[in-house]
Amino acid sequence: MDTPLDTLTLSHFLLTGAVLFVLGVIGFVTRRNLIIMFLCTEMMFQGVVVSLAAFSRLHLHVTGQTFVIFVLTIAAAEAALALGLVVLLFRRKRTLDAEAWSQMSG
Amino acid sequence: MDLEWAKLIPWIAALGAVLCGICCMNRRLRKLAAPVCIGSLGLSFLLSVLVAPGVHRFDPQMPADKLAKAHVVKAFEWIHVGGLKADFAYFLDPLTVLMLFVVTGVGTLVAIYAAGYMKGDRGYARFFAGICLFIFTMTTLVMADNLLLLYLGWEGVGLCSYLLIGYYYDKPSAVAAAKKAFIVNRVGDLGFAIGIFWIYFSYNTVSISEVVRIAAAGDVPGTDSAKTWIPFLLMLGAFGKSAQLPLYVWLPDAMEGPTPVSALIHAATMVTAGVYMIARLLPVFVLSPYALPTVATIGGVTALFAATIALCQYDIKRIYAYSTISQLGYMFLGVGALSAVGGVFHLFTHAFFKALLFLTAGSVMHALAGQVDLRKMSGLRHKMPITAILMLIGCLALSGFPFITAGFYSKDLILASALEKGLSEHNPLYTVLAVVGLLTALLTAFYTFRLWFRVFTGPVEYEMGDQHHGDEHGHGHTETGKIRVVHHHEPHEMPWLMNAPLVVLALGAIFAGFFGVGEYHGWVGGSLDGSTAHIAAPGHGDTAPLTLLGMNLHTAMMVISSVIAIVGITAAAYYHWLNRAAAEQFAERFPRLVRLLADKYYVDELYHAVIVKPLRVIGELCYVFDRLVIDGLVSAVTLVPKGLGWAAKCAQTGALQGYGLGMAIGATVVVLLVIIKVL
Amino acid sequence: MDYTLYIASVMGAIAVYLMMPRRGFTPRKIGALLGAVTLGALWLILARSAGVGAGMPGGAWTYYYIFSAVAIASAVRVITHTRPVYSALWFVMVVLASAGLFLLLDAEFMAFAMVIIYGGAILVTYVFVIMLAAQSSGAEDDAAAPVYDRVAREPVAGVATGFLLLAVLLSVLFQPMQPNNAVASDDQAIIANVLTGRAEERLTQQIRDPKQQKMYADAVAKPDRLTNTQRVGMDLFAKHPLGLELAGVILLISLVGAVVIAKTKVEAEAAHSA
Lengths: 106, 679, 274
Description:
The structure holds 3 protein chains of 3 kinds.
Chain A: H1 10-30, H2 34-59, H3 63-93
Helix pairs in contact in A: 1-2, 2-3
Chain B: H1 8-25, H2 33-56, E1 71-81, E2 84-92, H3 94-117, H4 124-143, H5 147-165, H6 172-203, H7 208-217, H8 224-241, H9 250-253, H10 259-268, H11 273-280, H12 282-286, H13 291-311, H14 316-336, H15 340-367, E3 377-378, H16 385-399, H17 406-424, H18 428-456, E4 461-462, H19 496-511, H20 522-528, E5 547-548, E6 551-552, H21 553-578, H22 580-589, H23 591-598, H24 603-651, H25 656-678
Antiparallel strand pairs in B: 1-2, 3-4, 5-6
Helix pairs in contact in B: 1-2, 1-4, 2-3, 2-4, 3-4, 3-10, 3-15, 3-19, 4-5, 5-6, 5-10, 6-8, 8-11, 10-15, 13-14, 13-18, 14-15, 14-17, 14-18, 15-16, 15-17, 15-19, 16-18, 16-19, 17-18, 17-21, 18-21, 21-22
Chain C: H1 2-19, H2 28-49, H3 60-80, H4 84-104, H5 108-133, H6 147-150, H7 155-173, H8 182-206, H9 210-221, H10 228-239, H11 241-263
Helix pairs in contact in C: 1-2, 1-7, 3-4, 4-5, 8-9, 10-11
């Protein structure tokens, strides 16, 4: 082993970020509960945010962290609206199943 | 007065048209349309009169021998493309001035008459807007300095004619007549347009003054075929617009329009545009050895042809329409005999008496609530004495009653010119045409007075028509007209608002002839000296005066045509006044001939069978082709997006996760592509 | 090396698939074990491929492995748990673990903002909505949960796609960066010697206002320089004023939108069986 485990590299953090992102994608695709699906998009945000922070550290440049703030903003806005809509949908059909809303099929 | 003012002549009329158009919008403004129209036309006429002396002045800028009295006034630049230059420029020479007098003068009088005639009509303001627009386009036509502008005016008057023939647009026959007029004119205008193109290609200019100068000098750069065929193409346009054989069929139908329109457009002004155009471009026509004989022949044949039809018609407006065609034939005969003075002189006098005749016919119709059938009116002299006298004057002028009417002098000039040309050049064609002209004169006198005697003499009998004009003079009925009280009102004399312009026209019908009498054909001849119409005419007095029957040719012609006119009038008086039964008996002896004439030689039916029906069939075929092939192709093309859409539709499951999966796969592919590129 | 990566990806995919909720038996423990092995193997591969050092302080690496493992494990639980409330709570764990990673990355402000906003505000909203929309079943066992929570939808396709994406991403991350590569060594040199101070220099140069410049210069002159929060603030307000404004506008709009949505009255349709 050329490099021991105790040397952390950028790739370590990117790995974690990528795994979080991919798990978010899998969750979005496989889960059928609308709320969980939105939760999974938040998890994808998490993956991206970790990557951003890692790049920020690599370049010693805070703009990466500034972007995280924007991501947070969007996440908050999305959570507010999306959850509002989910509640609306739930009130109409009394279910959170995403497949209940497939009238748009061609 | 400065010639620059001439620019305003068309545009005052255009302004009048715009103002009348504004008057259309409001019910209360509508009544203002007539004064606006009369005012603008009157102003145009006044300007024409004021400008005239300036035109007759000698212009040192122009070459002394040719076009000595031609002036060009440029209003604004219009089209400058490559070598093509066509400005809104006005060409002023004595011929223009003469035409302006006719157009604006008769236009003003007709507008005054129409102010009374059209009273109470629904489209009062629309009518006057059309009249103003017509005067704008007609003055543009006669003042145009280049052929393009002339063509603009040419099409403009065609449009106005269409609009005004179809004035009663809720009447199917009027709409059909308007379409017919427009479409028949297209045939002629196509020839005219091609002629203009060809002139541009061979003369390299569309300016009338230059074209005429080049043609008069004889050094046309084009080939012989250009020289020969350009006049024929132009002629086609003239025959269409001036209703000559074989394109005359639209004019009788055009009588569906209001009578003032018939008087102004379809008798006095627009239909003479063809004569004007040939007179204007006479040097171009002279270049072709066959052009002018053709013009003269068509004119002579049309004159006779239309006169025979007029003999057996019963619709008073149609009789005058055929009479107009016949008289236009005379004008073409005159121009074709190289007597542009004769043609234009007849145009000038004809404008007066034919407008007078139409307007008096309009008065009769007005009095009889739209009745136009000759058989249903008689003895109206007692009801409408002034109209009777006015129409008598018009009829005398039309039939060429000797010495006291304008028509006598102008018709005589044409016939004498034709005969002179025929005898001096030993050209039998012109001699025959002169004889045809004399025969036509006989028929003209007969059918003209047939009408007059039928209408105004004999026992007082009449049958009202079915058009109750919503008038306000004398005998009103309910204002709204919702409940039509069938009232048997008496035929009545017209108010002086309508009779005053007729009196002016009648004076013109009598005295206009004296403008063309005397040395060098008097004022008309003298004024045309130095215009484009004149430069091609032979010089005066360089040949020995011809004699006929031991007299000077002109004198002899006067004697002959006097006798003919009086014979015609007498015959008409016998058959249609003194002994109407004799006319019936006479007609019964030739039933087939009468039938043929009454049915107008079946020309309309012939055209319908030969031209209209095949075109219809082609149209149907095109429709089928369009439906099956073109539409089929388009539908076939639409199958592609339809199929694509159908394919894409399958991917639209509506399941949220499905879309998410698609996005994830897409993202994967994108990243993969990026990596492959990087690696 | 590539093969090992792909094998690891496939193993991870199998692991997640095994843990996916389904009808009948769910071999969750086997999956967890397989996942842990895969993760460990990935780390080992990573250590061998010698990336660019991020300049961590000495003992930080242990924390990285701990936080990272917690974050990934919690993420797996988020997507595999059959009860939404627990998913949300596991997501809080993800947020907390990534906050720890942020601390390692010298992003203290972000770490706390994460915990407060995500773990606090947003997640509370989620839990609140889950409560609001929950079926009225008091039972604690999984069987009581609605079927759409208990059974994953097309897990094979989803997992396969996800790990295909991961494999592609990892093949980028694990690019062998050779130490003798000139560019890489240059990069290392630059990062070691120049870049550390670059941020401040840039910032001081870009500030035009002399007053601010002085303040900044003073701050730079100090041995500890700026704190992370100060830097983020400087960056945010000095360089991204427009973005900041837009973010504010978006928040306002979403506020209004949320109010409108909340006030919308809907009729319940006929009961829809999931």
